[in-house]
Design brief:
Chain lengths: 495, 726
């Protein structure tokens, strides 16, 4: 039997429990491990062999220290990608192995550090695990563990007990957990919950049908006349756009006002009319999504608005698992720079300041790293005031800047769409680049600007033959997502 | 205080004659040492024998009662030199380390010891760090055993055999006046099992019964003694060893009915061989085999008479010898050739030339061997193709799908590790000054060579980073940068690195990571301590139990002649950046030492967690801090993760239906080290990070002010959700 756990997940505790259960049933259990030291070494594999003492007589069996491919009866992993790794290594056989795994994810560093979405496809793993094992028991064991204030190892033990692969009855497992040093009760309740969960036939093999596309989206009833009017406008678009439009409109109204949402629909109209409808109006869908996000660019009033929301307190309490009524102090880490300050000021003033070296250094002096306690009255009042500044956003330098970029982007999309809809779709998708703050935001903005320029240059010279292709644009976008240093992007641009 | 405590397990070491001892391999070997009546034990920690040092440390009481002297040696060389006590006196002693690296460090002392010869049994327990789970380059201790003439024991990996071989090893050492290696493979160190214990034996000589000083001039390694000692190795020590090994049946013969073929294996691989034969229907699980097996529990020296006896009646023999070069294979060919025996011996012709002999590799090797030379009546259950297929169960398409979806999990720094902010700082300075060449070292900090930091070019050995930058330093566009841990500094770095660099006017930068422990090997104590620094976010702290005899790193550096020494908390990223920049750009000549201070978080957490719990339970006002990320302001570009890589800093699906990329997220394992916040400030990240202080047992003032704040803030809150205005 193989038990694979990540550092700090109690793989050693799990193994010791199994030894004790075996011992209680008069079975020999030899274990060995490649014990790394705690969190530092990623995944740790424990290998166990069990043998009934009754059958051994006076001789001791010669047990192996190596798990071997094709020779494993039980493989139990604490995370689904680790189950995948065990399959990859040949430690799961179709004719022999019961595979038990938690279905939750612990993301790897390559997944986490991706600029976009680097996560792997867990559904594919579940499907593979099901097809390549004799029996596959899986559910979110992490969730079950935390519901019982326990650790994943007790849930894994429950699944093992329920899998009926070892000839030990439930009570001997319970006995061992009760007898172990720490938190016997919560471990026991997690064990029992897991035993019940694993025992349900439905959970043995869950279906992996990819989620069906949602049924047609229905706009909720608008509460105001303005809302009604907006939704009516939105309903005129293709039904496949409705859901995105709804979310877009909601976000924009929250960000600015009703007019801003109308402005959004106007922009979108110019694209929708030239969309040839391919792939379910992919062009319009992409523009609808990224335009809404871009128009809601993050500036100081926006951040202040989000930080002063009523609902925020509760979500923080939940996230840090605070006790009922527990007092929390919350400090926000801000590092606003002159650029961010100017972006929220009226155009004239902002330009004057950014052109004045004295003003820049003065503001810089007052900015720098700030820890602001949003649970205090003064800071909350300040942020509330800053949030209200959004009323003047339309006159600000930041607004002017972002909206100039947005119209460049839309122009370029339109130019491309007239010749090559696929390429236009790719350019629309480049809207995904618009994210981050500070240097990151500056870099991604420059990147999309260069991509737009690539289209615009050709358009200006009226030699449409050399407009960038869909492939080229996709390559540029991927290169922009390749790293923080811009190197890959510059190379792709040269090529 | 090491990472894992063996306080309860060491009680098993008190077991007496006839008791059934159950436990791990390392614990069993410790028990065997006590049963052998050792006078002294020492060693240097390192996987896979770190726990052996931890067990010895936790067993100090028991050792003291018996009069056994124990030292946590400063390095493997220190440990090896301890064995000199066995040269003149009938004192048994054992030392332990990670091999082959530790053996390399100890080489000088070992060679001299082996030349002098021993009176009392001297044993080196090497954790052979080879194969899966190893953390070093792949070499064999065997080569050292051959060149220095030390015997190498490689017992069958069950506790009974392992314990017996420790006891036999001391007798062999004494019978042949030669120190011995006792080899423990990685999985053997951690294997659990049982054996029948014997009584502990107090050493004849110890602090309780002292020796009479005795000089044996001929044992000193000076000419002409060394010439005589070499002659003695060949003329008397070797034959005595061969005699003892064969008389006492240290190697084992297991007969089988198919006498034309046979398998020779080192003891450590025996269980794997039996399992392979069992799967082929040629053995049962108790080791009763149809194919004769000769087990080398003593891998060096070989016993020619035994090899001849086993081979002469057979046509073909397979030798299972893990690792390279195939020294045993060469020696056996030589033995057979000299005896004019034409039995064909196969080794690496059939088995792989390099790499670990796992269950699969061994099964495939034995299967191919028996397929190549069919024996009448011998039927294999599995063909070699079927065995190969065990590794390729997936159809090509699924295999690709799987490979794409199993993310690698490289080793990394722990949650809250003090080295993380330091590497963040180095990365930020590198961004400003251009690409660095960094000489790295052994320790947790070597993980910085991996994602997300990708810092570091070479690793030459423990404490050798500064030494390794001494040649490249004049050719680099920047001042040479070396990073060393406090463990490496005391092990070797002070002499090989700092002293030599000062002597040679090395105008470079040495960063010494001072975390207070030999952290990578499991948190063992080292000569220096680290000041408990008040972290940005952790509000509970105590002074670490100080030692009056601690040896500060900065004083050692100054004592060695370093003029420019700065101590900086690793958690102050801005200060670290400024100091590093200064060190790299200053016109001041000579070595610049930055002591980057921050207590190992794993050890720190173990220390303060019970304190926090106690404090809360005792009703005292207690603050616990951790970080959270606002998932509404996070845009999902993960710059924070690329800068830090903290395990608690992860991702989750984006709650915004319009955004497709996951948002960053701090999970509940956050210890509130504050690095996220520091990075926000120093690298100008996003405004999504917040520190949350959870107040336990609030004071009346806490409660009052919180009430006031809640009330006033709720007056100000008038944010209507957008959906309401639509």
């Amino acid at each position: 039997m193989i038990a694979a756990a990540l550092g700090g997940e109690g793989g050693g505790v799990f193994t010791n429990w199994v030894i004790d259960v075996a011992e209680a049933n008069n079975w020999l259990c030899q274990t060995t491990s490649l014990a790394g030291v705690a969190q530092r070494t990623g995944a740790t594999i424990y290998y166990l062999e069990l043998y009934p003492r009754a059958a051994a007589g006076n001789e001791l069996p010669v047990l192996s220290l190596f798990p071997a491919q094709g020779d494993i009866d039980i493989t139990i992993t604490s995370e689904i990608a680790e189950a995948g790794r065990m399959i990859d290594r040949g430690f799961v056989s179709k004719d022999k192995t019961t595979l038990i795994s938690s279905s939750h994810r612990v993301y790897g560093i390559s997944e986490k550090s991706d600029i976009g979405d680097g996560t792997i496809d867990a559904t594919a793993l579940l499907d593979l695990a099901d097809r390549y094992s004799k029996q596959f028991i899986h559910y979110d064991m992490e969730q079950l563990a935390s519901a019982h204030q326990s650790v994943i190892s007790s849930v894994m033990l429950g699944a093992l007990a329920a899998s009926d692969t070892l000839p030990f009855d439930r009570s001997s497992y319970e006995q061992v957990i009760r007898g172990s040093e720490q938190s016997g009760e919560s471990n026991l309740s997690a064990f029992n919950a897991s035993f019940e969960r694993a025992g349900k036939p439905a959970s043995m093999v869950e279906s992996f049908d990819p989620a069906k596309p949602d049924a047609e989206f229905i706009f909720p009833d608008a509460k105001t006349d303005q809302g009604k009017a907006l939704f009516t406008l939105a309903r005129a678009y293709e039904p496949c756009l409705h859901e995105i439009l709804y979310h877009g409109i909601t976000k924009l109204v929250d960000y600015q006002d009703i007019d801003y949402a109308r402005q959004y629909l106007d922009h979108l109209q110019s694209i929708a009319t030239i969309d040839n409808g391919n792939s379910n109006f992919q062009l319009s869908r992409h523009v609808a999504r990224y335009l809404a996000l871009w128009m809601c660019y993050e500036d100081i009033p926006r951040v202040a608005q989000l930080k002063t929301r009523t609902a925020r307190g509760d979500s923080i309490r939940k996230e840090v698992r605070a006790e009922d009524q527990q007092i929390l102090y919350v400090a926000e880490f801000f590092r606003p720079r002159v650029e961010e300050v100017c972006a929220m000021l009226p155009v004239g003033l902002a330009s004057a300041i950014s052109n004045s070296r004295i003003m820049v250094s003065l503001i810089n002096f007052f900015m720098g790293g700030r820890k602001l306690r949003t649970d205090t009255v003064s800071i909350f009042a300040l942020l509330t005031l800053l949030a209200k500044m959004r009323r003047f956003r339309r006159g600000s330098l930041g607004y002017q800047h972002e909206h100039r970029l947005i119209s460049h982007w839309l122009d370029a999309v339109r130019v491309l769409a007239a010749h090559d809809q696929e390429a236009a779709v790719e350019l629309a998708s480049c809207g995904r680049l618009i994210k981050g703050y500070g240097d990151t935001r500056y870099r991604t903005t420059q990147q999309i600007l260069k991509i737009i320029q690539r289209v615009q240059n050709v358009a200006d010279t009226k030699t449409d033959t050399s407009l960038p292709s869909a492939t080229e644009l996709a390559r540029l976008r991927d290169a922009a997502f390749a790293g923080d240093d811009n190197v890959a992007f510059e190379e792709a641009l040269e090529a | 205080m090491a990472e894992r405590s063996f306080k309860s397990e060491v009680l098993k070491l008190r077991a007496s004659q006839g008791d059934v001892f159950k436990g791990e391999g390392i614990l069993a070997v410790t028990k065997a040492l006590l049963q052998s009546g050792v006078s002294y034990v020492g060693g240097y920690q390192g996987s896979p024998i770190s726990h052996l040092m931890d067990v010895l440390n936790d067993a100090r009481d028991i050792l003291q009662e018996l009069g056994v002297h124990f030292e946590s040696s400063g390095s493997e060389a220190t440990a090896a030199a301890m064995l000199s006590a066995s040269i003149n006196y009938p004192l048994r002693g054992a030392v332990t380390w990670k091999s082959v690296v530790g053996t390399n460090v100890a080489a000088d002392a070992l060679s001299n010891l082996a030349s002098s010869g021993v009176t009392g049994g001297a044993m080196v327990i090497v954790g052979e760090d080879y194969g899966e789970g190893s953390s070093i380059m792949q070499e064999r201790t065997y080569a050292f055993a051959m060149k220095a003439q030390m015997w190498l024991l490689d017992p069958r990996p069950n506790l009974t055999s392992m314990v017996a071989m420790v006891e036999q090893g001391f007798r062999l050492s004494e019978a042949s006046s030669t120190p011995v290696f006792y080899m423990m493979r990685i999985r053997e160190c951690h294997v659990t099992g049982e054996f029948i214990a014997g009584d502990n034996v107090a050493p004849t000589y110890s602090n309780l019964n002292k020796v009479q000083p005795k000089r044996e001039a001929e044992k000193i390694i000076l000419p002409p003694n060394v010439y005589d000692q070499e002659q003695e190795k060949v003329a008397s020590r070797w034959p005595a060893a061969v005699q003892y090994i064969s008389d006492n049946l240290l190697n084992e013969f297991f007969p089988g009915k198919y006498d034309e073929v046979g398998i020779i294996t080192c003891g450590g691989s025996y269980n794997t061989v039996i399992r392979a034969l069992e799967r082929q229907g040629l053995a049962d699980c108790f080791g009763h085999t149809d194919v004769p097996i000769y087990v080398l529990n003593v891998a060096y020296p070989l016993i020619p008479e035994e090899v001849i006896r086993f081979c002469e009646s057979k046509k073909q023999v397979l030798l299972i010898e893990e690792g390279q070069p195939e020294y045993i294979e060469h020696s056996m060919f030589s033995i057979l050739r000299k005896a004019d025996i034409d039995t064909r011996l196969y080794g690496k012709e059939i088995l792989p030339g390099a790499g670990e002999y796992t269950g699969q590799v061994t099964l495939l090797g034995i299967t191919e061997f028996l397929e190549r030379f069919p024996v009448e009546g011998l039927n294999l259950r599995l063909t070699s193709k079927e065995v190969r297929d065990f590794q390729e169960v997936l159809v090509a398409e699924d295999s690709q799908l799987l490979t794409r979806n199993v993310p690698p999990r490289p080793s990394g720094l722990c949650t809250g590790c003090p080295e993380r902010p330091m590497f963040s700082a180095i990365k930020q300075v590198q961004k400003d000054l251009g690409e660095f060449h960094i000489s790295s070292d052994i320790g947790c900090h070597s993980f910085a060579t991996l994602a997300p930091f990708n810092l570091g070019n070479t690793i030459m050995g423990y404490g050798l980073s500064l030494a390794s930058s001494s040649s490249i330093r004049t050719t680099l566009p920047h001042k040479a940068i070396s990073i060393m841990g406090d463990g490496g500094f005391w092990h070797n770095g002070l002499t090989s690195g700092v002293t030599s660099a000062v002597f040679n006017n090395h105008d470079g930068v040495l960063i010494i990571v001072n975390n207070g422990y030999s952290a990578a090997t499991g948190g063992q104590d080292i000569p220096s301590l680290v000041q408990p620094n008040r972290l940005i976010a952790t509000t509970m702290d105590t002074d670490k139990a100080g030692r009056p005899d601690q040896q500060p790193i900065d004083e050692a550096c100054r004592g060695a002649g370093v003029k420019w020494v700065r101590t900086v908390s690793t958690y102050s990223i801005d200060k670290m950046k400024a100091t590093l920049r200064e060190a790299l750009t200053t016109a001041e000549p000579g070595l610049k030492v930055i002591i980057a201070e921050g207590e190992c978080m794993l050890n720190r957490q173990r220390r303060i967690r019970p304190l926090i719990k106690n404090s809360i339970n005792n009703g005292r006002r207690t603050v616990r801090s951790r970080f959270v990320i606002d998932n509404e302001t996070c845009t999902g570009d993960h710059a924070c993760i690329r800068l830090s890589g903290c395990p608690s800093l992860t991702i989750k699906p984006n709650p915004d239906p319009l955004r497709e990329d996951p948002v960053s997220y701090v999970d509940n394992s956050c210890v509130g080290c504050g690095v996220c916040g520091e990075n926000v400030h120093s690298a100008v990240l996003c405004p999504s990070f917040s520190r949350v202080d959870l107040i336990y047992n609030p004071s009346a003032w806490d409660r009052f002010i919180a009430r006031v704040r809640r009330r006033v803030i709720s007056w100000m809150q008038d944010d209507k959700l957008a959906a309401n205005s639509l």
